[in-house]
Amino acid sequence: MGEDKKVKKTKKKDKAEDKPAEDAPADAPAEDAAKEKPKEAKKATSNVFALFKQSQIQEFKEAFQMMDVNRDGFICQSDLASIYQQTGREPDSKQLDEMIAECPGQLNFTAFLTLFGEKLHGTDPEATLRDAFKMFDENDSGKLSEEFVKDLLSNVGDCFSKDELKQTFKEAPVEGGMLDYLKFVQIIKRGKEEEQ
């Protein structure tokens, strides 16, 4: 009979501990918020994957694996330094630190996708696009040979098909066989109507 009283007291304590949490309105929103945060985090993660086609995700995964030289599932400064060295360049530690700092936490595959999602959401800033063209402009004239640009687009990096080239140069400001890349950047960023 003494054991029955102990069990009843224990049950009453359990109910008493449960009751204040239910009655205390100040605690309830904190608990609800704590429960909602993990759901939001999962939602944000799944949205990153929704930004890309499955084939693109696979390509990013392959790129991530190539960059993750030490195969620990994270890209760190030593991984980036190794990539630089593989391309024959000596890495600058300050630049590597800046690259790693772009990610708020550890740079795992999901964070890697998130960074690309943010970068690919729009196009690069106008100055970045101008600077990219300017790298090839030895005369600093603001113009490049149409044939030279077509050759680059057809044979370097993610190569353009003939249809893609045709579509690109349909809107491009070309005069006398020269692409005015300053106007072209404006068209890319603001559309053709703002060029006028």
Please describe the structure with a list of short key phrases separated by commas or semicolons.
196 residues, mainly alpha, Recoverin, domain 1, 3 domains, 3-stranded antiparallel sheet, 11 helices, 3 strands, globular
**Biggest sheet record:** 3 strands, antiparallel
Structural class: mainly alpha
Inertia-based shape: globular
User: What is the CA-atom radius of gyration, in angstroms?
Assistant: 28 Å
What is the CATH fold-level name of the largest domain?
Answer: Recoverin, domain 1
What is the name of the CATH superfamily of the largest domain? EF-hand
What is the annotated CATH architecture of the largest domain? Orthogonal Bundle
Q: What's the pLDDT, averaged over the residues?
A: 75
- Give the H and E element order: HHHHHHHEHHEEHH
What is the helix fraction of residues, given as a range?
55-70%
Residue ranges: pLDDT <50 for 5 or more in a row? 6-46
Q: What share of residues are in beta strands?
A: under 5%
Q: Alpha-carbon distance between the termini?
A: 96 Å
User: Could you give the order of strands across the largest sheet?
Assistant: 1-3-2
CATH class of the largest domain: Mainly Alpha
Query: How many structurally independent domains?
Result: 3
Number of strands: 3
Number of helices: 11
Walk me through the topology.
Blueprint: H1 2-23, H2 27-50, H3 54-67, H4 77-86, H5 93-101, H6 109-120, H7 126-134, E1 143-145, H8 146-155, H9 162-171, E2 174-175, E3 178-180, H10 181-190, H11 192-195
